[in-house]
């Protein structure tokens, strides 16, 4: 009999690993830029960590976790997610003693015994961040901003992605909301699917994110958690949304977003893409202000998110990206004949100097042109009337995201320009 890989656990073949390495590199670089440091917890933990941390009644722990005894009969689990592990490590190594805010990131395989389908595997890979130690709603928005920046750095079309946000309040709010929800759903229980009828008893909040159409119909009329949180949680949510707006991050408030893990408090969010089909969450996260204490540490608020690598790689394949092969992509910022002439001259000078370069011929919004540039080139050069006056152009290192005005002579030596930009970024 020929042996095959286990259902839901697939090989990542050499044809794909280049893309994976590129994405992992971009993630590490970006997370570092936002001051997160890598942590690598083990793949195997005590099963009890997830029962306590994620919740014994959640689908993830109750139905999907790989649990097995070791030779001494101790119950172990393949980690289904990493937040509980990171918090365990935070407590175990007393990381709070070193700093008031600890920012950690991770990349690695997770395991859930789910029904395999597009975008859902039994072994999958997550990238994620956890910021432990602050209750500031600006931190929730910073974490969301990091997610948005990742998408931008990878050249994905942000217009096709939507932030869904909600607040589920503190533990006391949830207890109250549970009652409100039960009195709405109870009389309508006959219309719910069998899973939801069971959820009604254990965790009625989970009924809200059921995908079965008959349940969705009942749920869309249900009272929303955001209307049933205490004033401190409501203020926090308003603060979070205000910071999102200040950062230019558009979102929609989704009363049915509750997430499938029990540790969440207050802010929850997901970044979703229609292109991912039924499993449309590219990443998800939120606040978990009680988890550190629950796992034996001091009362410490925290927020984070995680995303699935497979889903990210799938979107990048969809967009049929070309590898950035050009040194420069030149973008004239107006149709002014002077600007167009100067663009051609710069382009010709680059090519004569042996560089691979191209220019935008179709004028688009600057943001769109930058997305094209990110797909094609390592650097972008903007030509506008002000730069011409000084015999120069604005150059942007697309990997590092830094830019400055440089002379034509410098542009034909992009390594020197990028070296300078990198040095400036580092200083
Ligand atoms: P989660 O929503 O369970 O959250 O998973 C986060 C992301 O992992 C999902 O949005 C999805 O992209 C990916 N994912 C989950 N399950 C699978 C699967 N079976 N196959 C492929 N991809 C999958 C958490 O895990 C939380 N720990 C996130 C977090 C961090 N919250 C706060 N900090």
In CATH, the topology of the largest domain is named BirA Bifunctional Protein, domain 2
CATH structural class of the largest domain: Alpha Beta
Structural class: alpha+beta
Estimate the strand proportion. Answer: 15-25%
Helix content: 25-40%
Q: Which kinds of small molecule does this entry bind, naming each only once?
A: histidyl-adenosine monophosphate
* Structural domains: how many: 2
Shape category: elongated
- End-to-end Cα distance, whole Å, is 60 Å
**What is the CATH architecture term of the largest domain?**
2-Layer Sandwich
Mind describing the biggest β-sheet? 8 strands, mixed
Give me the count of strands.
Answer: 16
Radius of gyration: 25 Å
Record the strand order, biggest sheet: 1-5-6-11-10-9-7-8
Pick out the low-confidence regions: none
Mean pLDDT: 91
Going by CATH, the homologous superfamily of the largest domain would be: Bira Bifunctional Protein, Domain 2
Per DSSP, the total helix count is 16
């Amino acid at each position: 009999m020929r042996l095959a890989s286990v259902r839901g656990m697939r090989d990542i073949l050499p044809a794909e690993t280049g893309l994976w390495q590129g994405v992992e590199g971009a993630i590490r670089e970006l997370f570092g830029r936002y001051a997160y440091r890598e942590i690598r917890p083990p793949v195997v933990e005590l099963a009890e960590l997830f029962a306590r941390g994620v919740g014994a009644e959640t689908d993830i722990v109750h139905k999907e976790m790989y649990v097995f005894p070791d030779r001494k009969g101790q119950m172990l689990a393949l980690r289904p997610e990493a937040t509980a592990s990171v918090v365990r490590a935070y407590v175990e190594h007393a990381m709070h003693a070193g700093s008031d805010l600890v920012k950690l990131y991770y990349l690695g395989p997770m395991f859930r015994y789910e029904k395999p389908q597009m975008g859902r595997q039994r072994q999958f890979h997550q990238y994620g961040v956890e910021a432990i130690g602050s209750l500031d709603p600006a931190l929730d928005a910073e974490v969301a901003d990091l997610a948005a920046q990742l998408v931008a750095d990878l050249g994905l079309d942000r217009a096709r992605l939507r932030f869904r946000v909600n607040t589920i309040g503190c533990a006391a709010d949830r207890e109250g909301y549970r009652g409100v929800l039960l009195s709405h759903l109870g009389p309508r229980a006959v219309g719910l699917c069998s899973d939801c009828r069971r959820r009604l008893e254990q965790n009625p909040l989970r009924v809200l994110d059921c995908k079965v159409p008959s349940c969705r119909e009942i749920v869309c009329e249900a009272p929303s958690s955001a209307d049933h949180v205490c004033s401190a949680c409501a203020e926090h949510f308003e603060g979070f949304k205000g910071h999102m707006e200040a950062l230019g991050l558009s979102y929609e408030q989704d009363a049915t977003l509750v997430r499938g893990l029990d540790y969440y408090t207050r802010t929850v969010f997901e970044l979703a893409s229609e292109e991912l089909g039924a499993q449309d969450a590219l990443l998800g996260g939120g606040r978990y202000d009680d988890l550190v204490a629950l796992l034996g540490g001091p009362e410490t608020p925290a927020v984070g998110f995680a995303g699935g690598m497979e889903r990210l790689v799938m979107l990048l394949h969809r967009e049929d990206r070309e590898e950035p092969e050009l040194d420069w992509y030149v973008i004239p910022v107006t149709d002014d004949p002077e600007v167009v002439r100067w663009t051609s001259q710069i382009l010709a000078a680059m090519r004569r100097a042996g560089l691979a370069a191209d220019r935008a011929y179709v004028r688009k919004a600057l943001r769109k042109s930058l997305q094209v540039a990110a797909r094609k080139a390592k650097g972008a050069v903007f030509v506008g009337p002000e730069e011409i006056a000084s015999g120069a152009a604005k150059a942007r290192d697309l990997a590092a995201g830094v830019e400055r005005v440089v002379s034509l002579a410098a542009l034909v030596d992009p390594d020197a320009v990028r070296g300078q930009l990198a040095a400036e970024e580092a200083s």
